[in-house]
Write a structure and sequence with these properties.
This protein is an alpha+beta fold. The protein has one domain. It contains 9 helices and 10 strands. It has a 7-stranded antiparallel beta sheet, with helices on both faces. β1 and β2 form a beta hairpin. It is globular and about 55 Å long.
């Protein structure tokens, strides 16, 4: 099937060049002090804007948007994002600088109601091949922009859509030339009345089994509030997104939100985290979706 999405006319390089790295701790003592300043939360938590809530069990901790920004920019040395996330989930037993740590960043994209009538028609092997070809084709551009070549190896977890809960998840394994290990891109999308809750797990490929095991629990703990749920959609007044389920998997929301507006996706710090270059991603979506929606 052919997937089309609104072309994203975003001045990527201008946005990227405007970022400046937040002040980082210069000693282990400073880093420890910064970690102790974080305020992990559990139990019922309403996300900013009141659109959704979390029910965080003892096995996890939630960090609010400010603490999340501290971890992402000062501890993990990402460029500051142009917009804050809605927060972060982490295993409670792990610290942000532990070797096997991982996190799930939460954001919201208000592109409108995403129709799911294409969910059972998607040819995922064909879609994966298109994505792999596009990544390979744009490696020259990546290199020209100063990034190492990148390869999309395949699904680390094939896409699955729960039509009753309107929740989608999948994972990709990426290899960047020169990296010590492969990168895991684990994605969860929860469809709502006016947009999509975006949950991106940041980790190395070694944490795949841990995240797979935790996914049912993560899916259960994040839900839209009444009035914002998928079933609350009113076709008379609500906007409909210009893309469907297939584009979510291919990366439509990641292109618009994760890679362009929230620069924390470009993890720069720990060895298990890999840079995914802007130029390659921009080219990927141009290749897959064309210049405008039809």
């Amino acid at each position: 099937m052919k997937i089309k999405i609104l072309h994203l006319l975003i001045p990527v390089l201008a946005v990227w060049s405007s970022f400046c790295v937040a002040q980082e701790p210069k000693t282990p003592e400073e880093a420890e002090k910064l970690i102790k300043s974080l305020k992990p939360q559990q139990g019922e938590i309403t996300l900013s804007g009141g659109i959704a809530k979390l029910n965080v069990p003892p096995e996890f901790s939630y960090l609010n948007p400010d603490d999340t920004e501290t971890v992402l920019t000062r501890l993990w040395r990402n460029p500051p994002a142009s917009e804050k996330s809605l927060g972060m989930l982490m295993p409670a037993k792990m610290g942000p600088l532990d070797d096997d740590s991982w996190a799930v960043i939460i954001s919201f994209v208000d592109d409108g109601y995403v129709k799911d009538n294409d969910a059972d028609k998607i040819e995922y092997p064909k879609l994966l091949k298109q994505m792999q070809d596009a990544v390979h084709e744009h490696n020259k551009e990546r290199v020209d922009k100063g990034y190492s070549p990148m390869e999309l190896l395949g699904w680390a977890e094939p896409p699955r859509y729960d039509a009753a809960a309107h929740k989608l998840y999948w994972a990709k394994e990426l290899k960047v030339q020169g990296a010590d290990s492969n990168t895991l891109n684990y994605n969860i999308r929860i469809l709502g009345r006016r947009g999509v809750l975006v949950l991106n797990a940041i980790s190395g490929i070694g944490q795949l089994e841990d995240i797979k095991k935790a996914t049912p629990q993560i899916l259960a703990m994040v839900n839209f509030n009444e009035g914002h749920r998928y079933s609350d959609f009113d076709p008379k007044i609500d906007k409909v997104a210009t893309y469907g389920i297939a584009a979510l998997v291919a990366g439509g929301v990641a292109a618009k939100l994760g890679f362009f507006k929230l620069a924390w996706v470009f993890i720069l710090a720990a060895k298990k985290f890999i840079i995914i270059g802007i130029a390659g991603i921009a080219g990927l979506f141009k290749k897959l979706f064309g210049k405008k929606a039809q």
